[in-house]
């Protein structure tokens, strides 16, 4: 677990993933979690293991303010994880069931996005010291969403996500970029909350897809721990928000979820075409990850160069500083400094 970012909010899913009265199972940073939505609409998260016989609570059901285990009917309160009922007990058996608990995770639903707080202290209860990310434009219904599992450690997935130089090779197609369209680029970066941003700029001229937006688009790309990338594109008073969450499942698997929100009519009309393109992008990355594993299984020494890989170096520095600040009990100090980076793609 020490290899994953701790004491931070993780993206757990979209509001639409969890219907009223439903339970679903996710695994985040090696922790099995059941997410549920009560009849009043409140979302909650508990560890997805019954402490009695290890059955997954996500296979059970919600009864009032408790989750009932499917194996023996033990019930656990959704607000604190305390056991509220053990049906097998007789009236003569005095037992304080509330002393039995499953881990409860703080959960927040911001617009269409659900966040779960993972603390390094498994006994943590109360209010987390930091707020989850908030993206105002994500309050609307998502235009489209796609997800898959990458067969790699989360660090390789994140670094691949922010890598600016692989596009003409991994994503080579006429409507995006090709090796022939490569040219030198200079982008200004600046520190942001728990991460950094490529400052607002006009998209590259060799990115045909941006031309579908019409007008004069201006885009800002941000990254923040533990693995959230957003691209906020403005065309006049209209917006396209691309939200991507890279979330560790365990040491060898990573979940990636990409969601789009927009009020641009052209984009909504082109949804079927754009959905095909977005799906192709993710699966091209997944195929490259599988190829990469052929080399990584031999534990080679890897290289990072300036400036194309500087974002990867920033990510590693952010992780290191976040862990150090928690261990030292001090405020996090963003190690990223404003800088203009240059590369060809």
Indicate the topology:
Elements: E1 8-14, E2 23-28, E3 31-37, E4 43-47, E5 61-63, E6 66-68, E7 75-77, E8 83-85, E9 104-105, E10 107-110, E11 113-118, E12 144-150, H1 154-162, H2 167-170, E13 184-192, E14 195-201, H3 208-211, E15 218-224, E16 228-235, E17 238-248, E18 254-262, H4 265-269, H5 271-296, H6 310-328, E19 339-344
Antiparallel strand pairs: 1-11, 2-3, 3-4, 4-9, 5-6, 6-7, 7-8, 10-11, 12-18, 13-14, 13-19, 14-15, 15-16, 16-17, 17-18
Helix pairs in contact: 1-6
| CATH class call of the largest domain | Alpha Beta
Which secondary-structure class do the elements indicate? alpha+beta
Low-confidence stretches: none
Count of DSSP E strands? 19
Relative strand content:
25-35%
Shape category: globular
Strands across the major sheet, in which order? Answer: 12-18-17-16-15-14-13-19
| Through-space gap between termini | 36 Å
Give the helices and strands as they follow along the chain.
Answer: EEEEEEEEEEEEHHEEHEEEEHHHE
Number of helices: 6
Q: What is the C-alpha radius of gyration, as a whole number of Å? A: 22 Å
- Largest sheet features: 8 strands, antiparallel
């Amino acid at each position: 677990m020490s290899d994953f970012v701790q004491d931070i909010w993780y993206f757990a899913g979209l509001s639409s993933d969890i219907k009223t009265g439903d339970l679903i199972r996710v695994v985040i940073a090696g922790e099995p979690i059941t997410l549920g939505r009560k009849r009043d609409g409140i979302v909650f998260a508990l560890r997805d293991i019954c402490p009695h016989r290890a059955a997954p609570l996500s296979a059970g059901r919600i009864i009032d303010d408790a989750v009932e285990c499917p194996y023996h009917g033990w019930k656990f309160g959704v607000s604190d994880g305390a056991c509220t009922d053990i049906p097998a007990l007789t009236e003569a058996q005095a037992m304080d069931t509330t002393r039995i608990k499953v881990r409860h995770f703080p959960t927040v639903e911001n617009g269409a996005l659900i966040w779960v707080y993972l603390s390094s202290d498994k006994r943590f209860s109360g209010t987390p010291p930091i707020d989850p990310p908030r993206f105002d434009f994500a309050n609307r219904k998502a235009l489209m969403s796609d997800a898959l599992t990458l067969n790699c450690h989360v660090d390789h997935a994140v670094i691949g996500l922010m890598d600016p130089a692989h596009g003409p090779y991994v994503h080579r197609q006429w409507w995006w970029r090709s090796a022939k369209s490569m040219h030198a680029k200079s982008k200004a970066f600046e520190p942001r909350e728990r991460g950094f941003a490529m400052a607002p700029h006009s998209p590259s001229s060799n990115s045909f897809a941006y031309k579908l937006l019409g007008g004069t688009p201006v885009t800002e790309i941000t990254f923040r721990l533990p693995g959230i990338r957003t691209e906020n594109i403005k065309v006049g008073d209209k917006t396209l928000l691309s939200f991507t969450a890279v979330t560790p499942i365990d040491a060898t698997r990573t979940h990636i979820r990409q969601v789009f929100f927009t009020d641009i009519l052209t984009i909504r009309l082109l949804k079927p075409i754009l959905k095909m393109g977005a799906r192709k992008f993710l699966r091209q990355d997944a195929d490259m990850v599988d190829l990469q594993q052929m080399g990584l299984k031999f534990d080679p020494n890897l290289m990072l160069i300036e400036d194309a890989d500087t974002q990867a170096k920033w990510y590693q520095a952010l992780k290191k500083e976040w862990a150090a600040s928690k261990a030292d009990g001090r405020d996090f100090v963003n190690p990223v400094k404003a800088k203009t980076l240059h590369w060809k793609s």
